Amino acid sequence: MSEKKSTYIILLRAVNVSGKNILKMAAFQAALADAGFAEVKTYIQSGNAVLKSSKTASEIKTIIETLLSTKFGLNVTTFVVDTALLDKAIRLVPFSGELLPNRLFITVLDQAPNPALLASLQAVDHGEEQFDVLDNILYFYLPEGAAKAKMSNNYFERKLQLQSTGRNLNTFQKLRALAQASEQASD
Length: 187
What we know:
This protein folds into two domains: 6-85, SP0830-like domains (Alpha-Beta Plaits), CATH 3.30.70; 88-171, Alpha-Beta Plaits (2-Layer Sandwich). A hairpin with a 2-residue loop joins strand 6 (130-134) and strand 7. Helix 3 packs across helix 6. It is an alpha+beta fold and 187 residues long. A four-stranded antiparallel β-sheet has the order 2-3-1-4, sandwiched between helices. A four-stranded antiparallel β-sheet has the order 6-7-5-8. 36% of the residues lie in helices and 24% in strands. The radius of gyration is 17 Å and the shape is globular. The chain has helices at residues 25-34, 57-72, 83-91, 115-122, 153-160, 169-185; strands at 6-12, 38-43, 48-53, 78-82, 104-109, 130-134, 137-141, 164-168.
């Protein structure tokens, strides 16, 4: 009997951004498959993958970061999210009203923020831009879009002294659909 494999979502921090950390998704997908991961799929060029593995999220993170370093020469922080966290992040969006999904960002933090740093950030007037944090998931909404926004992943990393990676709601929903298809394929 084979080991039970779980579905994981891989979010790479800062690949293919402004000409830095260039990683072709086809090559990344092939490398993940060669490393023993099953049902590997990538989505768009910003470092997203869905895969199945019997390993833990921590083990997967180590394998992928080592692979990125040795095979591609990239020192890239990797976030490994299970389907339960992905579903929770989408389900618990803390904002109400008419939200444009390409302006709503869900950011995975490497840990829950320091309460004092978070309180300090909450005291800042961000105008129409909104943010909220639930455990290690940060949400922010940019009603005017990202081009002129004060908020970004880099902004929150500096203010909260954490590492993070985020995607807009459209991307999270697509990754959830890919993960669900992967899970249904093995049922």
